[in-house]
Amino acid sequence: MGVAPKSCIGLACSVNITNFPPVPDQTSISGTTRLCAVYGHPVKHTASPAMHNAGMTELGLDWRYVAADVHPDRLAIAIAGAGAMNYIGLNLTVPHKLLALELVDELDETARIWGAVNTIRFEGQDETGMWCPLAELPADYSGQMRTHGFNTDADAIIRSLQEDLEVDPQGARVVLLGAGGAGRVAALRLAAEGVAELFLVNRTAAKAEAVRDEIAERFPEVRAVAGYPADRRADLLLNATSLGLAAGDGSPLDESQFPIDGAAHVYDMIYRPAETPLLASARKAGVRTANGLGMLLYQGTKALEIWSGRTAPVETMCAALKQNVYGSHC
Fold first, then answer.
1. pTM of the model
2. Cα separation of 35 and 226, whole Å?
3. Could you list the active site residues?
């Protein structure tokens, strides 16, 4: 396993917020303000509005970003409703990323490769009939519209691992907890990055076995195993389950099968609470840890770029995330 080069942006997400510029004012809303949103169920924990509104303000966009709790049964109509109201785009979180594959009109290569949609861009036709982002069309556009699905999670998890934990997945032994939507995407992206061994653990063993078989077919050079490693050692333990998100949740790790100090690094995709039971256990064991804030940041900055066609202000958006999740106590 190699060590990734340091990045001032990625590593800065682990230091005091005073290293970042202040979050711009986000209070101005007018009759021309355009909207983006994140859909999830639940969604009350999300820090995405703070991040995106800071980024949109920094770019001088008259856009605002909101969160909506959308039951899976209502996802299709909620997406259609946002399109009817000329939303610029959507983010999707648990449990919508797999469902959306069948609900969008067009899939970007990222969504096809990784098999999940976490970002939707609404598109309309210009006067020549070419499809273009709704951001490039008038706010009162009323022509044909389509939904274009992307996946920005897969690259975000790799970048966060490299910058926040200084872990290069290539050649690493990884224990991955969770084989659902987020777990499957992480497993495939780690395999594509060239991990040596990938141990897949899921409450329903059949799901872990299905992802194992998919990796064997698509990435035969990677040794994929359903279950914990017999020698109880790994370079990285990564949690892609939702255990730890709700108050009272326990750890997703079965320490009778794999001790927490058997991992050199522990990463939890959950970012709120900032320290889950899994991360608390790892910290007490002296293991280096990171939560999912970096992943949230990088999937979000890429989404903003997809919607706007402009370079996202990463440091401003990171500062807003830190303020929202940690307050002034970084």
1. 0.89
2. 42
3. 97
CATH 3.40.50.10860 residue ranges in the chain? Answer: 8-151+295-326
Q: Say if residue 8's pLDDT is above 60.
A: no
| Strand (E) or helix (H) holding 104 | none
Cα distances from 83 to residues 73, 109, 123, 144, 289, in angstroms, run: 18, 22, 9, 10, 40
In eight-state DSSP terms, residue 261 is: G
Residues of the chain with CATH 3.40.50.720: 155-291
CATH number of 8-151+295-326: 3.40.50.10860
Name the nearest CA neighbour of 145 among 137, 153, 156. Answer: 137
- Please, what's the b/e burial string for 254-275 (b: 16 or more CB within 10 A of its CB; e: otherwise)? eeeebebbbbbbbbbbbbbbbe
Give pLDDT, residue 23. 53
CATH of 155-291 given 3.40.190.10, 3.40.50.720, 1.20.210.10, 2.60.40.1470: 3.40.50.720
Q: Which pLDDT score, from 0 to 100, does residue 24 have?
A: 54
Task: Dump the DSSP string for 144-160.
Answer: -EEEEEE--HHHHHHHH
In single-letter form, the type of residue at position 32 comes to T
Query: Distance between CA atoms of 150 and 240, rounded to whole angstroms?
Result: 20
